[in-house]
Amino acid sequence: MSAEGIPVDWDKARASAYEAGRAAAGPGERVSLAEADGRTLAEPLCALTDLPAFPTSSIDGWAVRGPGPWRPVGRVLAGHTAAPLTDDGTCVEIATGAMVPPGAAALVRVEESVRDAEGLVTGTPRSAPEWRLPGEEATRGEQLLSAGTAVDPAVVGLAATCGYETLAVRRAPRAAVLIFGDELLTGGVPGAGRVRDSLGPQVPGWLRRYGATLGPADVTGPVRDTLDAHVDALRHALADADLVCTTGGTMHGPVDHLHPALAALGAEYVVNTVAVRPGFPMLLARVTDPDGRARFVAGLPGNPQSAVIALVSLAAPLLAGLHGRELPELPQVTAGADVPGRGGFTHLALAALDPHRGTATPVGHVGSAMLRGLARSHGFVVVRPGTRATAGDRVPFLPLPLHPGERP
């Protein structure tokens, strides 16, 4: 395994990471509806019955048969089976959501009806039917959602409406984070030649937003700056995690041990160095277990903004693949200001969205080691190699997942 890499085009790197994830996606498992939110459908969601399964009243009022006035002969509430209306001139009181009795010709709204002293009901039905017909929303066996759909509360609700108790979903990828660089401070104010680690606290949050599971015990470091310590830390993390994100050590300096450690573990590169700025250098490697199961290491640079760009460029598409989801296409936005190119590299420029104007405007404080600009941004304007963006141009935009559970 060579540690030397020719920078890969950014779009190609994203696609390679995604395909590696798709190829390694595990089989589905069945979970309860309460556990399904945030997962991905492993099978199509099909209607188990017609929706609605029976004629359903849309109003509170009267179900009537024949010409009025009508004599009430009963009541039907939601959750009960309605007896047929067999005689003209009769009606039953009906509640919203209740089953419309067989034989009913129309529904009359309670606020548009009158009941006289003898108890007879008069009123005029509206011209449009006031009930939902069986199969109006879906017919039995109809595919409602395809495999690969991200499960959110609306999907859970639809499944419940259909009568599902469980859903077949993809296993949620598990992640771990290794912090390299024993010069880093894990608490207190930076100074005297030492900087505070900002990646250990933030990378787990990004990974969760992209659908990975990990807890506080899955963040380790700083790992000592020796090859043996790096190999041991990686081997331990890979025993349980599908994806291990490392921070720092992606170059070839005297204490950069990631490449030799990957070689010692028999890893193979999926992507080794990406032609993107900021974010250089980054990598994605695959370690295959004896049973054939693939696990991955995403090497993030030590500079904080570069590390986040590596995460969104390689880890995010990998996780989309492991979830069995489609890799989202980049939406188009209007550049709110000029954005320079970076020669033969893709430029990911931190930008804030203005939802009223539909523009994405670059922010300040965007050096590789800075996080102030990232904290004010919604994502990145993408300026591809050999181009630049001028204010008013339509440009691709790579959004950050700014809220927990947001789809990648």
TrEMBL record:
Signal peptide: none
Its EC number(s): 2.10.1.1
InterPro entries the UniProt entry points to: MoaB/Mog-like_dom_sf, MoaB/Mog_dom, MoeA-like, MoeA_C_domain_IV, MoeA_C_domain_IV_sf, MoeA_linker/N, MoeA_linker/N_sf
Cofactors, names only: Mg(2+)
GO cellular component, one term: cytosol
Residue ranges annotated for the MoaB/Mog domain, each copy included: 176-321
Gene3D superfamilies linked: MoaB/Mog-like domain, MoeA, C-terminal, domain IV, Molybdopterin biosynthesis moea protein, domain 2, Molybdopterin biosynthesis moea protein, domain 3
Pfam families per UniProt: MoCF_biosynth, MoeA_C, MoeA_N
Keyword entries, A-Z: Magnesium, Metal-binding, Molybdenum, Molybdenum cofactor biosynthesis, Transferase
Highest taxon above the source species: Bacteria
The UniProt record lists the keyword Magnesium: yes
Catalytic activity field: adenylyl-molybdopterin + molybdate = Mo-molybdopterin + AMP + H(+)
GO MF entry, a single one: metal ion binding
A GO biological process held by the record: Mo-molybdopterin cofactor biosynthetic process
Primary role: Catalyzes the insertion of molybdate into adenylated molybdopterin with the concomitant release of AMP.
Name of the protein: Molybdopterin molybdenumtransferase
Source organism per UniProt: Krasilnikovia cinnamomea
